[in-house]
Amino acid sequence: MVFRKPPDGGWGWVIVVVSFFTQFLCYGSPLAVGVLYVEWLDAFGEGKGKTAWVGSLANGIGLLASPVCSICVSSFGARPVAIFSGFMVAGGLMMSSFAPNIYFLYISYGIVVGLGCGLLYTATVTITCHYFDKRRGLALGLISTGSSVGLFIYAALQRELIDLYGLDGCLLIVGALSLNILACGSLMRPLESSDSLPPEKTCVDKVPDQYFVYHEKEKTVEENISILEKGYVDEKCANNMPDYKQDSILNKNILSSINVNEKDTYKKKVVEQTNFCKQLAKRKWQLYLNYWEETVVLFKNKVFSALFVAILLFDIGGFPPSLLMEDVARSANVNEDDYYMPLISIIGIMTAVGKLTLGILADFKWVNTLYLYVTTLLMTGVALFAIPFAKSYLTLAMLSGILGFLTGNWSIFPYVTTKTVGIEKLTHAYGILMFFAGLGNSLGPPIVGWFYDWTQEYDTAFYFSGFCVLLGGFLLLLAALPCWNACTNQSSKLPPNTYSYKVASSA
Q: What dihedral angle (degrees, nearest 10) is formed by the CA atoms of 10, 16, 22, 28?
């Protein structure tokens, strides 16, 4: 597909608006699932760890399936994927209203809604990048706030709908609202070139020659046909046969000569298809090998390895508050009359503020984005340690705001990844990191819930969460210290017979 030059405006701003509302509509309920989590605890009577799987799957499955989502958008385009995913999100939410048990919710809300959100996220980011180049950072920042605004509004909206129509009615109405994603998706017009396209190459020609596994000379069609015929038994001489057999063979030869050209054509097609499949398999295998070689090279970078551990531990420890904070307040016997705003709404609006603020700070040349990211991790760990000491709505609201602001470090995570591995390896590295982020999102809330089921209090659970985030932050800080570069420079001055290994350049 040939695309025109990104217009950096025009219809691109329509794309920004519809992408904002797409993320608002699809992520509003899954991010504000903490309101539903409390209701599911009362409705099904299951443990907190088992119930927490619903929300963690909804938020983590999209990241875990990010490679599949990227393939779908690349193959079918952003518009068809967005429309199809809108049906998935709306259908999953409506199906959840009829859930007879918690296991049904794992499928309807956790997997169906979560996978739909992952597809929509990939579609909105892809179509926005097609329309913007110079203003791409601004455009992506604007659409990313849609999920945070959705968290802020849906937390209060779902609470109000539950009071008016019950849990089932709330899910039906929220699912109906999600159908507006179809209208948003229909406006995602692909940026295709109207000029004449170059002649289409075959699938084999599209793959560069450098991906050949073997470089032996391929046999011609005639040589392959001779090989195919090599196993045939030579016909016996007609003179050594009886007359009735000679007549039979003569009749067969007359009939077979009619279709000899068709048979030759068929053999040539078989050989050509065999050669095609052979070359395609070789090149696909080489691409697969190259992918794993690049992955090994990435993990030899000490900062990238530390970043992979940090993002996994951060999502294990830092994601549960957005899901469990409402139940934390109820467990602390906070009076509902003191609620001026749902705690999850506070997390949502402060996350949007954090994304914008940290994104602006990252643009200053004097700010080291890696150290800025490490700072947010360490502060998040400290805030998690403070949650067990919060026994009033005011203190919980303050901690919710702080955690929400620090969670906005997602806006600078692509910057950190780029500084660590370079722009040429960003896509590969970011996909790996997002997979482990999804794994952390999926494991974090159930682990915290299991701690509560075991101890009957959240104190130990949040001590564990804070420890995970602090550990990830300190590991990343140690890997990024300048002293490592000094050690690397000294190793380059070793005697000639001494061998040393130098990792890829870090941030």
A: -150
